[in-house]
Amino acid sequence: MTVKQLSIPELADACLELGVPGVGLWREPVRSHGVEATAKLVREAGLTVTTLCRGGFLTATDPAERVAALADNRRAVEEAAALGTEVLVLVSGGLPAGSRDLGAARERIADALAELGPYAEQHGVRLAIEPLHPMFAADRCVVSTLTQALDLAERFPAHQVGVTVDTYHIWWDDQAPAQIARAGAGGRIHTFQLADWTTPLPAGVLNGRGQIGDGAIDMREWRGYVEAAGYTGPIEVELFNDALWARNGREVLAETAERFLTHAA
Amino acid sequence: MTVKQLSIPELADACLELGVPGVGLWREPVRSHGVEATAKLVREAGLTVTTLCRGGFLTATDPAERVAALADNRRAVEEAAALGTEVLVLVSGGLPAGSRDLGAARERIADALAELGPYAEQHGVRLAIEPLHPMFAADRCVVSTLTQALDLAERFPAHQVGVTVDTYHIWWDDQAPAQIARAGAGGRIHTFQLADWTTPLPAGVLNGRGQIGDGAIDMREWRGYVEAAGYTGPIEVELFNDALWARNGREVLAETAERFLTHAA
Fold it and tell me: Domains along chain A?
């Protein structure tokens, strides 16, 4: 998503050129290129697919919407398996229109995980609940902290449900380091993502994630927390940023790799 | 601030007409009208000044900036006393330019409170640390949760330092109800403010606080928490909202009073 201006073949080519060994993919471009075609392409390029983003949006109250959401998440599990990644990232969903009940919405996520967890396990896929920054609680994700994500995940086996640790969403939370330790002790850090916090935020606040090193987050500090918690998996950089998307994708990927080495390695 | 388009005399007049018994004031309009003149006007109108907003911005590392911030906060305490309000709201301040150390910034707030708490007490004023929504952690307020605000406040006597409970900033936090109980048990709920959460957020995210009833927050639920915690003080409605500011101030005040009765009374 950091370089969504690149097609899947361009992305694979740029990763190989820069020595980037793995890539997290999003469902929309994968489906545009074709799931099997993408799987073949990345396999032949020797790239690891670190995660598939995203399933989720599991908070609907309407029965038909709920059935559709579960079916879509089962398809996402199948796509993850086809791509050869073990991790499907979940963005849980916001409040249904007119609702003010965050607690009930969180319970509906748990209900959905009880169905999706075993389905994912059958496909060799782990679900990674991603707490999103509290500014998304109403319209995108009612799971706002690692504490809440782990409270949900721990109702299920770790090989079914864990969490996504993304610096952008949790950097402000002084309880997050202890929660990373909790997640690590339970084998539930299913992926680790970097993005920086820059201000001012853009309208809608979705596409203002800062390039590594441009903002307020100490990347090495957070990398230290996940590694102290036993995490040895890939580190993803996931930037939603209109300014980066407007630039040459290969340049942005090269810059991102360089920033990673400077600020996180 | 909800109706900043009204002058101080217009505000007092509109409050009297609508039967609004108290008003939280901001320093800038008070200083424009004159502190003593404002004090006289609201006293003669029979209005209670519920709080003065705002002191704070106590996170600077530069010695000269720090001295200036403390001096400005002492003036804010004096202005609160002159206006006859017992409560000065504090917005703590963000990260200094180039800093990534939230913990150190929070400690500098504690250092400042050790100086300002006794000064406020001498003037019959209590300081009310306001946790701001985590989306403001970098540029406005490194205190993002009631938990953090109370961790700071409890280093000092409750008659010196307490907290501001504002629905807009804490509604997403499932730990906030327990923290309200903690604050109430310690006599540290120094004011209670309402604003609703509406999306999409505007650029800069400062001026998008929703009119009561327009958003995702159950006002009666939060009023219930503070009252169960023993709070019997005033309830303020504080909306920063460009659309409301563009309208007739008396109409907005009347609408706000009506929304309060419908959604919070």
Answer: 8-263 (3.20.20.150)
